[in-house]
Amino acid sequence: MYTSGVERPSSHQRSSKMKRFITNTLSDFFFEYETPRQVLVRSRRVGVVCRLIQLGVLAYIIGWVFIYEKGYQSSDTAVGSVLTKVKGVSYTNETGGERIWDVADYVFPVQGDSSFVVMTNYIMTKGQKMEKCSELSNSSRCSSDAECEGRSERHMTGKCLVNTTKMCEVLAWCPVEDDRYIPDPALLMSAENFTLFIKNTINFPEYGVTRCNLVEGIDNEYVKSCLYDPKTSPLCPIFRLGDLVQLSGFIFPDIAKLGGAIGIIIDWTCNLDHAQSECKPIYSFHGLYGNPNETDTARASLGYNFRYAKHYMEDKQEKRTLMKVFGIRFDIIVRSVARKFDIIPTLTAIGSGVGIFGVATVVCDLILLHLLPKREFYNNMKFKVTEKMEKEPLDEFKSEKEVSKKHSEEVLVHHEAPLSET
Predict the structure, then answer these.
(1) Consecutive sets of 10 residues in the chain, 422 residues long: mean pLDDT of each?
(2) Which is nearest to 122 in space by CA: 187, 190, 178?
(3) What does pTM read for this prediction?
């Protein structure tokens, strides 16, 4: 039988080579470190561009991320509640009927919600009862029953009152409301001197902090005598309605006639790295609609009004007094954010800033390799191209890395001097 002259390795030798291969691989993984090659380029133009970009990145990190955006702090929004109370009495003498209006008559709803309406003007229709009567005289007149079919918002009976008003007959609450004439000036002009008390409590659950707009120094004695003023009493929770209208940019007689809406914003922006007593509200006022001088599409539906009725029984018949109310709607909006130092967002902001510094390297590489006259020279210095080596046959347990090591031992490594721009 023919036998080869090459001796096959025994199982012990194979096991030894396997062990050495695993040991070398683990040793290379844990005890070797690779670092990229760097080329120092002495160029004023490239150096100035690099430093300017780095300076801009540094200014962005310090100015925008840390100072303006508070990137070193975490934030939380508050949950809260708003309570309101209006005080004041108004007197009217309409067509000889004297009447006193108190808070139960002119505030809707009366529960003290964060959104409410203060009545400033009205049209009252007394003694309405359900029956058949004539339409208002401003409607089109009729001459036959055929003309009284489906041309009114009210329920038509299909009958024309030819012998009396020459108007169509309707089944409605009669007498029909006549809202063509709106009182001018407004009947409740004294609402300008009504006062509004606002109590706002908020809680930041993330930090366990609770604050109220009745901050330190605002006690019962102060509340009884203070009146809000943006300069002299910016923390007083008592507001005069006339001042609110003026601060929102409206004129009280104009908005009182047809009604409107005003937004009251309570802004809580708190830095909890400081004392909690420095966390105080800031009030601002914004006219939403109700300006008679506005020229946009909202002019077609100027003002704010609604209707409500008071029902009662008289001579065993149900009657009602219908009120068309014109008023100022107040919407109280609470905006809140609290910030406090947190190591996690701080490290995140620093890490992202360090990463942005890489923009300078990218830009400078583009200038070196594509824009400068000596771009070919810099390209050869930055990228080292090795000669093509014939691939050795690998041993059964010999890695490519070991083969490359053998070749690298034959290469003489030169430490080149820094490049200069000539």
Answers:
(1) 56 78 82 73 81 88 86 88 92 82 89 88 91 79 78 74 82 87 90 94 92 89 90 93 92 91 94 90 89 57 87 90 93 93 88 83 82 77 63 48 49 42 46
(2) 187
(3) 0.71
